[in-house]
Structures are given as structure tokens and as C-alpha cells.
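Reopening this one. Same input as before:
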Amino acid sequence: MKGKDISIDSTTIELFDKAKSDGVETIWDRKDAMKTPCGFGEKGLCCRNCSMGPCRISPVSGRGAQKGLCGATADIIVSRSYARMVAAGTAAHSDHGRSILHVLHMASKDGNYTVKDEKKLLEVAKRWKIDTEDKDIYEIAHEVAEYGLNEYGKSFGYLTIPDFVPERRKEIWKNLDIIPRAIDREVVTVMHSTHIGCTGDAESMIKLSMRTALADGYGGSYMGTEISDVLFGSPSTRETEANLGVLEENQVNIIIHGHEPSLSEMIVLVADDPELQELAREVGADGINIAGMCCTGNEVVMRHGVKIAGNFLQQELAVITGAVEAVIVDVQCIFPSLVELSNHYHTKFITTSPKARIKDATHIEFNESTAYGSAKTILKEAILNFKRRDREKVFIPSSKSHATVGFSYKNIIRHLDKVVNSNIDVAGTVKPLADCLASGVLRGAVGIVGCNNPKKVHDESMIQVIKHLIANDVIVVATGCAAQAAAKAGLMCRDAKDLCGGGLYRVCELTDIPPVLHLGSCVDNTRILTVVGEVAKHFDLDMSDLPVAGIAPEWMSEKAIAIGTYVVSSGINTWLGVVPQILGGPEVVDILTNRIEDWVGAKFHVETDGHECAKQMIDAIEEKRKKFEERVGHRAKFDIKYEENKVQKMANAVLNRSS
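Same output, byte for byte:
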């Protein structure tokens, strides 16, 4: 296996080849050694839910698939497996939200954590009907935290659905009986329902999955994003750089990796502590260089401009540079392999959460109640490790790209106001974006999300899809590892407008935005839902009526299954670039890729080829546009002039190159 076989990213290729020279293994080596994956598992046909099994279900000639020992059919087994993935993904994201709410509850004027966005806090309190009159801002913060925490375990009623969701969508959920109740209740319900002797009907199981996923998208993840903005500040437009070339030759390089910003925000703050800066100089370094990996990287880049080291499949490669003093992690998407790998170099692999302890790692528990001191202790470990760096093992790639990041819902609106800024009455509303869609200046919008997966060439599908979409006047919003792939490829810089079709080119030029907008970490997919919901409400339509779509080209985690399920349940067609483990259940496949559209107005599409996937999405968006334009009843008037021939030639050149 050669570097060019595993990634389109030059930095990844260089460091994969260095790993071979250094005699260390990476995820791609382990995948190669794995040989052919289990065929039963690939199709979702292995049931381990009791000790009578595992039952592995094989097709029986002339009689369809055999049954499990309890009599469960292939579709029952597959639907149970799917539901458990949704439950685990919902638990992971929602537990993230719970942690942030607990941090808000301990916030105080002189504490480790303070309220950075008071306006946002008051908006949340108003939506939740919390009285704010004559109250101290921290009294309000604590009441908001208690209200949010109650959403996890309340005994009666339903989840508080965000205001941006159109009434038509809520009615669809009500009729299907999939409006979430308490978040934890939905996770427990799925786990109970998949226990032996419970749900034995695939359709019922999928609907339970949908309700649980909605508890994530409109509950746990939504609150995680909203409360992070309150605590750490709402994102604002920032300039940064992306890829492992952001590491510095003579600085203490620290990678922060994981998902919960309560840790990463404090690490960034403490890195400026004069005592630690002086300690760095004492050990011979010029300073401290913090770089973000995965969703933690997205959290700190959009609030502080901290440089992006890379995405999911690059976490081992950061260590292989030989230039990283410490990888500091909290939860989710962390390779246990980092322990052995770090031992080959001088890097300290530091775990900080009791939810993600890893054998033989250096464990320094991060305590939010003494956050500054905890973070300082962790950083001291990293700084002192600089003296152990072996210069002969150091290789820092030169590749890095400029990126403009930090586009929250309100930040997008502020930029798009410039398209129609002659009318002061529409400033600060969703109308400019809605008019861009109605006029056809923007043909549609796509949210590209999700992880990397070694089943796919690293970043390739993401970049293929994005280039096709923007060349066809489809604006792209991105979160998670997909956002970092776009940043590394230079698609989040303003100059990337030269790769766009005429309409998107002009919108980018007028509003001073890149064609791919960075919306944050994977929990921040709720920012995408907010945009779609507000535009639908503007037109008095349902979310399913808009020319929008979602895609996870290289997804790999259970969180991605939960995300995809709540996006489809929201009425947004969603493409998967990696085949989900459902092929063993024909009815389950039919439900998710066909029948579910009759329920919620959207469905899953599965296509592993990036070029073909993009074409399907563009065709689907154009089909949506026909009905959308009929419903809107007019085309908004714009005086947008652009050099159509020049720009179209650029767009065609992109398509030809990527083909």
C-alpha cells in the first residue's frame, strides 16, 4: 500500500510514508491486515443481544433468510442493530450537551467559566419562557441550565422543540408519533425495545429510531451548540490555516482532540499564562502552539482562530511528525492506538475524561470546578516534554491552506444582508438568503458532514462532491471532519469563488464569503437545521419543500447514523457515501431508502462514488426547485451581474479536472 492509495491530501501521503520508514503502524495498516471484513456484520445480520447466540443469519435457498434462535427475522435483527447505533450516537452527542449545561450551571462572574454571550443567553431564556426581569445574569444562566438539564429526564410531556421548526414539520412528527419526550427516555426506550423478546417489527423499530434521533438533533446537540455559544461566545468570522503544516519547528506543539469545548477553551486560555510562556522559553522553545484536531479543532477555530491540524484520520499522523509534545484528548473519535504510537516518539498522550480512559495513557483528570488549575497542570506536562524531542525524527510537512471560518446562523445572515442591503427593512433577517434561493441565483444548499473512513480514500469523496456542487451554484455548509477537509483543500478561502458557477460566484463576491461555510463541530449540525427551518418558515413551507440536501461522504460513527436519521426525519434528503450495515434486511432497506419518504418527505440515498453522488444531488435539487418555484409564486428580482462566460469556463474546468 502506498500513500497515494489512501488519501488525496499531500500531507497525509507524506506522513504515511514516514510512518513506514519509522516502522510504526497506522489505521490504514490495521485495515490492510484486517483482510475481508465479516460478511454477516457488513449486512447487519449478526445478533448478539442474548447469550443464546450470536445468531448469524444466512440466506436459505428458496425460503429467504433463516431466523435467529428466538425467531427474529433478518429485518428484525437489522432494524435492532440500526436502532442501537442511533441510540449510541444520540447518547454521545446528547451527553456532550449535558456536560455543557452542567458547566453553565457552575458559571459565575469570578469563576473559571463565565457567560461570554449574554444576549444569546437572554434569547435562550426567552424561548424557554424563563422570567429574566430584575435577575442577575448568572441567576438566569443557572435557571437556563436547570431547564436544559430537565429536558433529559423529565417524567411527563415532550421535548421543547426549537422555534425554528415549521408547524407543518411538527404536525408530521405528531402524526407519526415520533415527537421526542425526554432525551434519556428515548435512548432507554430503544435499548429496552431491542432487548430480546421486545420489538419484533422493523417499521416500528425504525420509527423508534427516528424519535430517538430527533431527541439528539433538536435536544441534546441543539442545546450543546446553544449553550456553548452562551459560555464561550458565538462564532465570528476568523482567518486561520489548516493541515499539519501548522505545526511549528521550535515551539511546544500541542494537539487538542475530542469534542467537549469546556476542556479546549480552557487549554487555549491557559496557554497565554505568563508563567507557562516563561516555562516554554526555559525549556528552549520560542512559545506554545495550540492546534486543533477533529471537532475540538472546529470548536476553538471558530471562536479563537486556533489553527486546524487535521481531521479524524490524521490524528496518528500528527504524532508521526515527531514534533508534537502532547496530544490532549477528552471524548469521542480517539484512537486507543495513540498510546503505543506516542511511545515510539516523545509525545505524551494525555487523557482527561473518566468517560474515555485509555490503558497506559497518561491520565490527568480535568475538573471543571478547578478548570484553570487543571488545564495548567496538563499544559505543564506538555511543555516540560519539549526537552525530550528527538530532532532526527521531526518532519513537519509544508502544506497548509488558508481558511475563513466561524459562520453561525446569525453570521451567515449578516453576510447575506449585503446582497440586498439597499433595503434596511430586511437587514438581520433570513430574507436575503431566501430571495437568493427563490431567484435561482443560488440553485440550492447542501450540508456536508461526517467523519473520515479508511474504506474510502481520505477526503477524496468530500472534495469531489463539494467541487461539483459549487460549480453548479449550490452553496455548501460544512461541519465536523468534512469542514476540515474543505479547509485543507482551500475551499474555505474567498478565492475559491473562482471554482463556482455564476450565481454563487457573484453571491460570494458581493458578500465576501467563501463558497463553503464552516459551521462548526458535529453537534453544530443544528446550525444547519436552523437555517433550513427559518427559510422554510419565511416561505410558509415545510423543510422538505426546499431545494436542500445533506450528505455524509465518509461517515463512520454511530453519531453519524443518529445525525442522518434526524436530518431525514426533518424532511431533508440525505446521501451516504459508505454503505450502512442494513443490506441483510430487505424491508429495512426499503423503509430507509423508499417508504420513509412517504412518512417524512425525504429518504436516504446510498452512493459510494463522489462524482455520481454529486450529480444525483444536483438532479434532486433541481427537481425540488420546480415545485419550490411554483409554491413561492415568483422569482425574486436581483440586479446581479457577472461575467457568465468567464465563470462558467472556470466551473467547467473544475469539473473536467475532477473527472
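So the earlier flakiness isn't reproducible anymore. For the record, Confidence is low (pLDDT under 50) at residues 422-426, 635-659.
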